[in-house]
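Let's practice the habit of predicting before peeking. Look at the sequence and jot down your guess about where helices and strands might fall. Then scroll down.
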Amino acid sequence: MENLKVAIPSIVNKYLWGIVGVGVIVTLFSYFHTPTRFWVNLVINNFYFTGMALSGLFFLSLQNLTKSSWMRPYQRIPEAMMGYLPVAFVFVLLGLF
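Done guessing? Here is the structure:
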C-alpha cells in the first residue's frame, strides 16, 4: 500500500464543494435567523457525534484488551471515529463561552 490516491473527477469535486458551500450558507442563516435553535442544534449534534467517537474508543480498547485477531482489518474504522474527539472538544469550549 504505497501510494493509494483516489482520483476524483473534477465535476464531482465541484458538486461536493457546492454542497459544502450550501451547508455553510444554511448554517450562517440559521445562526442569524434563530440563534437559540442554532446553539441547541449544535449541542445535540455534538453530543451525538461525541457519543459515536467514544463508542469507537470503547470498542477499540475492548478489542485490544481481549487481543482479538479478527479486528486487525477493521481497526481503522473505530480509529477514524475517534478522530472527531478534538473537534468535539473545540465545540464544547465554544458552547461553554
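How did you do? The helical segments are 10-33, 35-65, 76-82, 85-96.
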